[in-house]
C-alpha cells in the first residue's frame, strides 16, 4: 500500500511539473505612469536665436558669417552703444540656435534646460556664455528667456600636423538656463475625462489597462470608468465625487501586465542585434560559410649591372590567396529566447554573420517575429 501511495504521489508531482511547464510565460508588470502618458500633458517645443560670447578665438569669422556681425551690432545698439565704423574682426562670439522643451503644466518662474547649437563657422563653444535669448513657441509667443554659461562635453586639440577631436564642440547645453515667463493655456481642470496614450501601442496592453482601472473604480467609485478606444488610447471618465488631479494620482500607480509584439531589431552599421523575449524560431537547418581573399603586394627592386646603361626598375609581385571557411549544417530552433541565443552562439559566427542568418531565417518564413532593420 505504501508503494502505491508513493507511485501516486510521484505521478501527481510529475503531472504538476508538466502543467507548470506548459503555462505561458508571465507578462512584465509595470505602473500605468511608466507605460502611458497624459494627452493633456504633452511637451511643447521652443526655439530662439542668440549669441554666445566669451569664446577664446573659436567663434565665427564675421566675414564668412555676416549674420553674426549684424546680430552683434543690433545687440550693441539696443544697449545704447554706437556701432558705426569699420567691420570688426573679433572671433570671440558665435551665432547659435537655442532650443528647449517646455514641460506640461510649467508655471512662470520655473527653470528648464536649453540646447545651444552653432550656426556659423565657429569651431568650439567651450567657455562661452549665452546672452539673453527669447524662446518662442509655434504660436509666435515668448514663453521663456535663456541665458547662462554653455557646457560643452566634447573637446578639440590641434597642432601643426595632427588634430584630435572627441565629441561635438559646436553644440552644448545650459542647465537650468531658461526661465519660464508665460504659462501655457491649460484646460486640464475643466476637462471631463482623462486620455492616456500608450508609449508602445498594443491592443492587449490597452485592454488590460482599462480592466485594471475599472477593477479599481469598482471598489472606489462603484462602477467602471475606463474604456480602451484603440491600441494607443484609453479614456477614463471623471467621477462626480473627485477631481481629475486626484483621479490621475490614483490611477497612475496601478499595476498593468504589458504585452508587446515580437521583434528583432538589427543595426547593420554597428552590428547591434536586439531580440525580444517573445521571438520564436521554427525548426530550420542553417549553414554559414565565408570566403576570404587576401591580396599581398611585394614589389621587387631590380638594379642594373655595374657600368651598364640600365636604370633601376621596380618589378611588381602579387600573391593572391583564397580561404573558404564553412561550418557544419546546424539545426536551429528557438522555443524561447534562451534557447535561440544559445543556438546562434553555438554556430560560432560573428554578429555580422548572425545578422545574415536572421535575415535568411526571416526569408524562409521560420522567424516568428517582425524584423526591423536600422
Automatic annotation (TrEMBL):
Function per UniProt: Assembles around the rod to form the L-ring and probably protects the motor/basal body from shearing forces during rotation.
Subcellular location: Bacterial flagellum basal body
Membrane-crossing segments per the record: none
Gene that specifies this protein: flgI
Superkingdom of origin: Bacteria
Statement: the UniProt record of this protein carries the keyword Signal: yes
Species of provenance: Pseudorhizobium tarimense
Description of how the protein assembles with itself and partners: The basal body constitutes a major portion of the flagellar organelle and consists of four rings (L,P,S, and M) mounted on a central rod.
InterPro entries reported for this sequence: Flag_FlgI (IPR001782)
Protein name as annotated: Flagellar P-ring protein
Pfam family, one: FlgI
Family: Belongs to the FlgI family.
Keywords on record: Bacterial flagellum, Cell projection, Cilium, Flagellum, Periplasm, Signal
Region forming the signal peptide: 1-27
UniProt KW Signal keyword: yes
Amino acid at each position: 500500500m505504501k508503494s502505491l501511495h508513493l507511485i501516486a504521489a510521484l505521478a501527481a508531482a510529475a503531472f504538476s511539473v508538466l502543467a507548470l511547464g506548459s503555462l505561458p510565460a508571465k507578462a512584465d508588470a509595470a505602473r500605468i505612469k511608466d507605460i502611458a502618458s497624459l494627452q493633456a500633458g504633452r511637451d511643447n517645443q521652443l526655439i530662439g536665436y542668440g549669441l554666445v560670447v566669451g569664446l577664446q578665438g573659436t567663434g565665427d569669422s564675421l566675414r564668412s558669417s555676416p549674420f553674426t556681425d549684424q546680430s552683434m551690432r543690433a545687440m550693441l545698439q539696443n544697449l545704447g552703444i554706437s556701432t558705426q565704423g569699420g567691420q570688426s574682426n573679433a572671433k570671440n562670439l558665435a551665432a547659435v540656435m537655442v532650443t528647449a522643451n517646455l514641460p506640461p503644466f510649467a508655471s512662470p518662474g520655473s527653470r528648464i534646460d536649453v540646447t545651444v547649437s552653432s550656426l556659423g563657422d565657429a569651431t568650439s563653444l567651450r567657455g562661452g556664455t549665452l546672452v539673453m535669448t527669447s524662446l518662442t513657441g509655434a504660436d509666435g509667443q515668448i514663453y521663456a528667456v535663456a541665458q547662462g554659461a554653455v557646457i560643452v562635453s566634447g573637446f578639440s586639440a590641434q597642432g601643426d600636423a595632427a588634430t584630435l577631436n572627441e565629441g561635438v564642440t559646436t553644440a552644448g547645453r545650459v542647465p537650468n538656463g531658461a526661465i519660464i515667463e508665460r504659462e501655457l493655456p491649460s484646460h486640464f481642470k475643466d476637462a471631463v475625462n482623462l486620455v492616456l496614450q500608450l508609449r508602445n501601442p498594443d491592443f492587449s496592453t490597452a485592454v488590460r489597462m482599462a480592466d485594471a482601472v475599472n477593477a479599481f473604480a469598482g471598489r472606489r467609485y462603484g462602477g467602471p470608468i475606463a474604456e480602451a478606444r484603440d491600441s494607443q488610447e484609453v479614456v477614463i471618465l471623471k467621477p462626480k465625487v473627485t477631481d481629475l488631479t486626484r483621479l490621475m494620482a490614483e490611477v497612475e500607480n496601478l499595476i498593468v501586465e504589458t504585452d508587446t509584439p515580437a521583434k528583432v531589431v538589427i543595426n547593420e552599421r554597428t552590428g547591434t542585434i536586439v531580440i525580444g523575449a517573445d521571438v520564436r524560431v521554427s525548426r530550420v537547418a542553417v549553414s554559414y560559410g565565408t570566403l576570404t581573399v587576401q591580396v599581398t603586394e611585394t614589389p621587387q627592386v631590380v638594379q642594373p649591372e655595374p657600368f651598364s646603361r640600365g636604370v633601376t626598375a621596380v618589378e611588381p609581385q602579387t600573391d593572391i590567396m583564397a580561404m573558404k571557411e564553412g561550418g557544419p549544417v546546424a539545426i536551429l530552433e528557438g522555443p524561447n529566447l534562451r534557447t535561440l541565443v544559445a543556438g546562434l552562439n553555438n554556430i560560432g559566427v560573428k554578429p555580422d554573420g548572425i545578422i545574415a542568418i536572421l535575415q535568411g531565417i526571416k526569408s524562409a518564413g521560420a522567424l516568428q517575429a517582425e524584423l526591423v532593420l536600422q
